[in-house]
Structures are given as structure tokens and as C-alpha cells.
Design brief:
It is a single chain. The chain is an alpha/beta fold and 314 residues long. It folds into 2 domains: 179 residues, Glucose-6-phosphate isomerase like protein, domain 1 (Rossmann fold), CATH 3.40.50; 82 residues, Helicase, Ruva Protein, domain 3. 52% of the residues lie in helices and 9% in strands. The chain has 14 helices and 7 strands. The strands form 2 sheets. A 5-stranded parallel sheet has the order 2-1-3-4-5, with helices on both faces. Strands 6-7 form a two-stranded antiparallel ribbon. Strand 1, helix 5 and strand 2 form a beta-alpha-beta unit. The chain is globular and about 65 Å long.
């Protein structure tokens, strides 16, 4: 190792040493001697603290949701980008949006360092390549109407920092999700969501509490954005895509719960509306045709409550 490499390694050691996610939790110094029951209790106790940590950053999450929704209303996308576990969490969250909320797979996108193969197998060194992070953003033609969410437990992953720098250069709105305070990622983003969960029960294993915190935040960002875009009616998923028998049954139950009609009428209206749960609900509640219900929904930007007040749905 050259002197330059030794100096660089020393700098990284000092940076990492100060991170809350890398500290040793002294409460578990004898963890390897715990009984199985004690291990389960200890891990569950640590996990129980995550929700409180997320609660402390609720205002930042709310601001992020407002910004994402405003851009998505104008046709923008939300892109998650991360390396390792954070990257996988982003891909997971993005993949759930089309079947759950009816958006195309190009509207919420998950990008992981090392490409799709890294979802299953670690790609060594991918997280250290800031240039590749920037290139992955550039290759997707990110622009000012898009939102890029960088995810990194440490808040210092070069790949993610490179991606956010490129996104900001292109005018996109940027969000940094990290698990350390005053992180480089938070400083690089328009909105910093820094969920400080403290040291892990297994030192440095940030797929644990940090991973849980990141999953909770991503759940909020995507799900609450969908609520703001009219993808729900009360607690009901009304843009669910019917791709199998289970989802067909769920769609019918959704119509029944929203309107109080029986299963036969729900099925008939769903067929008349060409599988649109929203149109079926509006048709049942107003007595208009499925076509008129669809027109009312289009005029109301897809919001059922507004559609119910449209002249064509009286």
C-alpha cells in the first residue's frame, strides 16, 4: 500500500468511526452468550426504537411528500437510488407501485449500484463509484420535473452522492435519506431525512435498524404521494390493477366497501367499467353509466370525491 493509499484509508476510518451507525452498542458486549429467547427480546427491543426515530423527522418527510406529489402531477417521476441494502429497498418499493396504485413502471423507478444483478448478488466496489452514480442518473434523462431520492445508511456513499450531484445539476428535486445526522448526503439534498437509529445490535450491520428505518421512510414517501395523487378513497386502494383472481376479488370487495353494494353488482359494474375500480365506484354511488363516471373522473384528475361532485355524475 502506498503512502497516499494509507492516508486515504486513514481518512475513511476517521469518517466512519464518528458515524452513529458504526458505533458499538455496549449493551450487547456479551451478545454471543445470550440465550435464543434473550437474543429475540434484544433485537425486538432495538427494532421498537425505530418508529420513534422516524417520528422525529416527520416534518421533513411531509415536506418531501408535498414536493414529490407536486412534480408527479406535472408528469414527473420519482427515482430511488442507492447501493447494497438501500438500493434493494428502493427497487422493492418502486416495484410495488404499478400493481398497487396503477402507475406505469416508469413513474417510480428503483436504481441500484451495480445494476439489476446487484439485487441478488453484491457487486464489489460499485458503491464507491461516484461517476457511475452520475451516469446512471444521466442515462435516465432526469430533468427538473423529476425527484431523485438518494438512500444511504451512512449518508456518505460516493455512488449516491454522485447521483444526487448530477440530479441537482439537471434541476431535479433531491431528497437524501440517511441514518446519521449532518451527513454529506443530507447536505447535498434539497430535503434531508436523517433518521438516527443509533448503533446496531450487530455493529455496523445497517440492514437491521437502519434498513427498517429506510423502509419505513420509503413506504411513507411513495404511499402518501399516491394518496395526494388521488390513488386512494378513504383507506381503499382504488387504482389497483387486476392481474390475477386474487386482485379481481380485491377489486370487487373494494367497490362493495366503498358503496355498500352486493358482490353481483360490484362485479357487473367492474366489467362495465373495463376493470376500473374508480369508475365502478362513481357509477354505483351516482347511478350514471360507467362511461359518464369515467368522464367525471377525468375532469376531476382521478379524485373520486371530486368526481362525485361533477355535473356528469349527479
Amino acid at each position: 500500500m502506498t503512502q497516499q493509499q494509507r492516508n486515504g484509508s486513514g481518512t475513511i476510518h476517521r469518517e466512519i468511526e464518528g458515524l452513529a451507525t458504526e458505533r458499538v452498542n455496549d449493551a450487547y458486549a456479551t451478545l454471543d452468550t445470550f440465550s435464543t429467547a434473550e437474543l429475540v427480546q434484544a433485537m425486538n427491543r432495538e427494532d421498537a426504537s425505530v418508529a420513534d426515530a422516524v417520528a422525529r423527522v416527520e416534518p421533513a418527510i411531509a415536506g418531501a411528500v408535498e414536493a414529490i406529489a407536486e412534480r408527479m402531477r406535472r408528469g414527473g417521476r420519482m427515482l430511488y437510488i442507492g447501493a447494497g441494502t438501500p438500493g434493494r429497498l428502493g427497487v422493492l418499493d418502486a416495484s410495488e407501485i404499478p400493481p398497487t396504485f396503477g402507475l406505469g413502471p416508469d413513474r417510480v423507478v428503483g436504481i441500484i449500484a451495480g445494476g439489476d444483478g446487484a439485487i441478488r448478488t453484491a457487486v464489489e466496489g460499485a458503491e464507491d463509484d461516484a461517476g457511475k452514480g452520475a451516469a446512471d442518473i444521466a442515462s435516465r434523462d432526469v430533468a427538473e420535473h423529476d425527484t431523485v431520492v438518494g438512500i444511504s445508511a451512512s449518508g456518505r456513499t460516493p455512488y449516491v452522492l454522485g447521483a444526487l450531484a448530477e440530479a441537482r445539476e439537471r434541476g431535479a428535486f433531491t431528497i437524501g435519506v440517511a441514518c446519521n445526522e449532518a451527513s454529506p448526503l443530507g447536505a447535498a439534498a434539497d430535503v434531508a431525512i436523517e433518521v438516527v437509529v443509533g448503533p446496531e445490535i450487530i455493529s455496523g450491520s445497517t440492514r437491521l435498524k437502519a434498513g427498517t428505518a429506510q423502509k419505513m421512510v420509503l413506504n411513507m414517501l411513495s404511499t402518501l404521494t399516491m394518496v395526494k395523487l388521488g390513488k386512494t378513497y378513504g383507506t381503499l386502494m382504488v387504482d389497483v390493477q387486476i392481474t390475477n383472481e386474487k386482485l379481481r376479488a380485491r377489486a370487487e370487495r373494494t367497490i362493495m366497501r366503498a358503496t355498500g353494494c352486493d358482490q353481483l353488482r360490484a362485479a357487473e359494474q367492474l366489467d362495465a367499467a373495463d376493470g376500473s375500480v374508480k369508475a365502478a365506484i362513481v357509477a354505483v354511488l351516482t347511478g350514471v353509466s360507467a362511461g359518464a363516471a369515467a368522464d367525471a373522473l377525468e375532469a376531476a384528475d382521478g379524485f373520486i370525491r371530486e368526481a362525485l361532485g361533477q355535473g356528469g355524475a349527479q
